[in-house]
Design a protein that fits this description.
The complex is a heterotrimer of chains A (324), B (161) and C (504). Chain A is an alpha/beta fold and 324 residues long. Chain A is 42% helix and 19% strand. Chain A folds into two domains: 159 residues, D-Maltodextrin-Binding Protein, domain 2 (3-Layer(aba) Sandwich); 125 residues, 3-Layer(aba) Sandwich (D-Maltodextrin-Binding Protein, domain 2), CATH 3.40.190. In chain A, the strands form two sheets. Chain A has a six-stranded mixed sheet, sandwiched between helices. A five-stranded mixed sheet of chain A has the order 7-6-8-5-9. In chain A, strand 6, helix 6 and strand 7 form a beta-alpha-beta unit. Chain B has 161 residues and is mainly alpha-helical. The two termini of chain B are 47 Å apart. Chain C has a domain of 340 residues. A two-stranded antiparallel sheet of chain C has the order 1-2. Chain C starts with a helix and ends with a helix. The C terminus of chain C is likely disordered. Classes of the chains: A alpha/beta (324), B mainly alpha (161), C mainly alpha (504). At the B-C interface, strand 1, helix 1, helix 2, helix 3 and helix 4 of B face helix 9, helix 11, helix 21, helix 22 and helix 23 of C.
Chain lengths: 324, 161, 504
């Protein structure tokens, strides 16, 4: 019964879709798809992937089940889908991962995954307390030049991760002895910002939308964003490049990937579906309303991107003297 | 299974010692004053002290008590079986749910324990099947808990609403 | 300007009311099923409400979480299987009452106290949220650390007859909390190369294993076959209305404490009920006694605090977007997604929305009374079915509850392991509740201690040189010194007696 159904679907799809897309169409998906999110229910990653999955569902008429596996900073979730069968029915969120291997937590490399599409990039930003003596990025650079250990800097999450790696890259470009910088991990950006408000931290690194509430309350000021251009939503926040002249960017990003070894034809198929979902109005609008950046890369572009991510992470962490 | 307080103390102390020893293998990776081994070391020492205290206390106050009391379920084979069927059922679920799917696994699990508890097998199987179907509909179909569909996976799209 | 009429008009929407009713029934059902928890109820709701209109979405999640937190008391009292980590504090007291055939008292006390705590915290929330939030934000890692140490002392109040065994359990819980990635350096600890252990031990599977499965094991060989008859709750209304007034102090103290402790992000909700329980037991003559009245006082104080802490957690959540606990973290994300961005501007620009949310909070807690009574009734009816049929179904829900919170089969394995462990611990009179407390507080303690040490670059003095932190610190040390001093003294006296007896 199952086979005949598959045949029927194939037939239907080849006749209908091929006419529409004018290309070879496989029957992906002909059963429900699992989408592993490496963060908890209700967070930004969860939201992004639920939006995307809803579009995929509407396009493919198959359920796309979002499954949250946030344990161990996402390591459990990455392991689940990177060790699944590469049949296109288990995919997952791919976000900064290179630090896991360097810290000896897991051994994912770019080769552990089949990158499918990148859908989101959120630049890191540098925040200070409103009453702080530090008023600008220049002040921070000057203070760290004088004494690299003088500032208490919250990574807005675990360290050696999305927010602090680009910041450290910038400080390396400024010839600061980054190994001495006092980086302090926090249980998430909210916890870091709480410390900033209570005077326990001097600088917090995280994305800008996360600080909206405290900025409105007049407690936090964003001094620079680590992106190549100013963000549309925050036109008053200068980029780090404008201030320092050093073109250093980075932050977090979210893409869809599958286990290593997926069939190139299947990859093409899924990539096309993801692109349509990405371009849908409701995905674009949902991301924009929430203040999340959208950026698309196809499978090949995403593959090159994660290679570059591995190199940058390794360079920074070597300079910091972390890991092996 | 009740054992003498001194043995409880010994077990606690051994656990504490093992944790304290293990904590020494956790070397701080950066110039941290208190590394990842610091808390485990404190906990290990704490357990050692508490375990030692329990041993002494057991020795002082518990003289004349038996070292090991046989658990009550050992008194009858039925009871032993009813006791062990619970962890066995959970292990069965762990191993079987992915290949067999939730529906079949849960039906077998429920029927198995009920029969062990002395329920007539026809009733047991009926209750098991109805409960499994209802739970499967509520949690997998409606609430989207990613329960395994096992053999039904290729057509499970029809059952997820 | 906020105008009460317009808020009421928003609430009169039949669709909204329908959503609230359905969510209430859903929350009560999930919360009251042993093995399924309030966190699960909230998390499973996310995919449904993520695409709803803002107000119904938020109403749904607030109602469901409040109901589920209360409903967790039902299996706690009747079956000794607590539904939230916080209710583990008073499960034993409530179950003892059930055993004496007084389940109506235990459950009624829990229900009315929960509703009272919820309404009280909603009142405080409405009147003073922005002001309280500022205070909560002045807490840094130093204050949190001391709060955690103070919380640890609560373990001694649920330790049972042997302080040493209670401490062993607490330390064991703290040890379990260290498994997985170290919060500071990210180094894997006690993982033995297993990816599952890198993820650490989830609080919920351990809770389900230690309490629910170990209880199933204990019941498996027939000592509690007739539990269903004893658990049959009688008239709740009549029993409890009489009880409210004598325990007013406990109720008020629990509600206030719950709101305040609950409003501290990251520390709050779980600890509030424990501290309230400890206070009821230690500081009042009524709550310290071993009688029925004492148990009721403790249950009321602690469950008032348990539900009040939920309201408290909304204080920093709505004012600064900083979540108080796992459940509010989900609620806040939902608010963000719905474009109701928490923050002070929410109070200025969209007061009708924020006050409508507070109004829903009131409504949900008032609705809890009739629906809660109905739920307790229904639960009592189900318990009349033969244990041989009910207990396998409970086991299935334990498995399901652990799996759906963690989404891993490893969590199912943990349930079996901790079930056996809990059984052995209980047999040897090692109390279970302190282990849960250790597991709750472990990460907080370690994270805040390490963060403070990183900030001060290893200088321990920093734990005392902040005004609030230093005060809490000194107080905490005093409490601990008193506990240990008193116990040692009591033991010395006892040992002397027994030695004298032997000598004579």
């Amino acid at each position: 019964m199952n086979r005949s159904r598959r045949h029927f679907r194939t037939l239907l799809c080849t006749s209908v879709c091929a006419a529409l897309l004018a290309g070879p169409a496989l029957a992906w998906p002909d059963q429900p798809v699992s989408m592993i999110v490496v963060a908890g229910a209700g967070g930004g990653s969860d939201f992004t992937f639920r939006l995307l999955s809803r579009e995929l569902e509407a396009q493919t008429k198959q359920p796309v089940n979002v499954i949250n596996q946030a344990q161990g900073g996402g390591i459990v979730g990455y392991t689940t889908y990177s060790s699944a069968k590469p049949d296109g029915y288990t995919m997952g969120q791919l976000s900064p991962f290179a630090q896991f291997k360097i810290l000896g937590q897991a051994d994912f490399t770019a080769e552990s995954f089949t990158p499918l599409s990148l859908v989101n990039v959120d630049p890191s930003a540098i925040h200070v307390g409103v009453n702080s003596a530090l008023k600008s990025l220049d002040d921070i650079v000057a203070a760290l030049k004088k004494d690299p250990a003088s500032l208490r800097i919250s990574c807005g999450g675990t360290c050696s991760a999305s927010w602090d790696i680009p910041f450290i890259s910038l400080m390396m470009a400024e010839d600061i002895d980054v190994a001495k910088i006092n980086l302090i991990p926090a249980a998430g950006s909210a916890a870091g910002l709480q410390e900033l408000a209570s005077g326990g931290m001097d600088v917090v690194l995280c994305s800008i939308p996360e600080t909206d509430a405290l900025t409105d309350a007049g407690m936090v000021k964003t001094v620079a964003v680590l992106s190549s251009d100013r963000l549309e939503r925050y036109p008053d926040v200068p980029t780090a490049k404008e201030i320092t002249g050093k073109d250093v960017t980075g932050g977090t990003w979210r893409g869809v990937a599958g286990p290593a070894g997926m069939d190139p034809a299947l990859v093409k198929e899924i990539e096309a579906q993801l692109k349509t979902a990405y371009e849908s109005e409701s995905f674009q609008k949902g991301m924009k309303d929430r203040g999340f950046g959208t950026q698309y890369m196809d499978s090949a572009g995403f593959a090159a991107f994660i290679k570059q991510h591995e190199t940058q992470t390794r360079d920074v962490m070597t300079a910091l003297g972390v890991g092996k | 299974m009740k054992v003498h307080d001194s043995i409880v103390g010994l077990v606690v102390a051994i656990l504490g010692g093992a944790i304290a020893l293990y904590s020494q293998s956790l070397v701080p990776p950066r110039h941290l004053n208190y590394g990842p081994g610091f808390f485990p070391l404190l906990i290990g020492i704490g357990l050692l002290l508490v375990g030692g205290g329990l041993m002494v206390q057991g020795y002082v106050t518990g003289r004349g008590q038996p070292l090991v009391q046989r658990p009550r379920w050992l008194a009858s084979r039925d009871f032993t079986f009813r006791f062990w069927i619970i962890p066995i059922a959970i292990l069965f679920y762990w191993l079987a749910v992915t290949p067999l799917g939730f529906l079949a696994t849960s039906t077998i699990l429920l029927a198995m324990i009920q029969i062990a508890n002395g329920v007539r097998w026809k009733l047991a199987v009926t209750v098991a099947l109805i409960t499994s179907v209802v739970v499967n509909i509520l949690f997998a179909s409606i609430l989207h808990v990613p329960l395994s569909w096992g053999l039904l996976t290729p057509i499970s799209g029809w059952f997820i609403w | 300007m906020v105008d009460a009429g317009s808020i009421l008009a928003q609430l009169a929407d039949p669709y909204l009311l329908l959503v609230i009713m359905v969510s209430a029934a859903y929350g009560l059902a999930i919360g009251s099923i042993p093995g399924l928890t309030a966190l699960m109820a909230t998390a499973l709701l996310v995919p449904f409400i993520i695409f709803m209109a803002p107000l119904p979405a938020i109403a749904s999640i607030i109602t469901a979480s409040a109901m589920a937190i209360f409903a967790g008391d039902i299996p706690g009292a009747l079956l000794r299987m607590p539904g939230t980590p916080a209710s583990a504090a008073y499960t034993d007291d409530a179950f003892k009452l059930t055993r004496q055939g007084k389940s109506a008292t235990a459950l009624g006390a829990g229900l009315f106290a929960s509703a009272f705590g919820g309404v009280a915290s909603a009142t405080i929330l409405t009147l003073a949220a922005p002001w309280l939030a500022r205070i909560a934000l002045s807490f840094s890692s130093v204050e949190y650390f001391w709060l955690g140490v103070l919380g640890l002392s609560c373990a001694t109040f649920v330790a049972g007859p042997s302080l040493l065994k209670g401490l062993a359990s607490l330390l064991f819980g703290l040890f379990l909390a260290t498994m997985g990635l170290d919060p500071i350096s990210g180094m894997p600890r006690f993982t033995f190369g297993s990816t599952n252990l890198v993820g650490g031990l989830g609080l919920i599977p351990v809770l389900i294993g230690l309490f629910a499965v170990s209880e199933l094991l204990r019941n498996s060989y027939g000592q509690d076959r007739q539990m269903s008859e004893k658990a049959k709750p009688t008239s709740i209304l009549k029993t409890v209305v009489k009880l409210m007034w004598p325990h007013k102090i406990g109720l008020l103290r629990g509600s206030l404490l719950g709101t305040i402790v609950g409003s501290l992000p990251g520390a709050g909700s779980d600890i509030a009920a424990w501290i309230s329980y400890a206070l009821a037991k230690k500081s009042s003559k009524r709550g310290g006694s071993d009688t029925e009245e004492g148990a009721v006082e403790r249950i009321m104080s602690a469950s008032a605090a348990n539900n009040a802490s939920l309201g408290g957690a909304y204080i920093p959540a709505t004012v600064f977007g900083i979540p108080g606990d796992a459940i509010t973290a989900i609620v806040i994300s939902v608010m963000f997604i719905k474009g109701v961005n928490p923050g002070p501007t929410l109070f200025l620009n969209q007061p009708q929305v924020i006050y409508a949310i507070f109004a829903i909070f009131f409504l949900a807690n008032l609705l809890m009374l009739p629906l809660g009574i109905a739920c307790i009734r229904a639960f009592g009816l189900i318990l009349r079915l033969p244990t041989s049929i009910i207990s396998p179904v409970i086991l299935l829900f334990c498995i399901l509850g652990a799996f759906s919170v963690e989404n891993t089969l490893f969590a199912v394995g943990l349930v079996a392991l901790f079930g056996l462990l809990g059984y052995v611990m209980e047999e040897n009179e090692v109390p279970l509740a302190p282990a849960i407390l250790g597991l709750i507080l472990g990460p907080l303690l370690e994270q805040t201690f390490m963060t403070t040490m990183l900030k001060s670059q290893g200088d321990l003095v920093t734990f005392f040189n902040r005004p609030i932190g230093g005060t809490i610190g000194a107080f905490t040390i005093l409490v601990w010194a008193l506990i240990i001093g008193l116990k040692l003294f009591a033991n010395r006296a006892k040992t002397d007696d027994s030695l004298a007896d032997t000598a004579a």
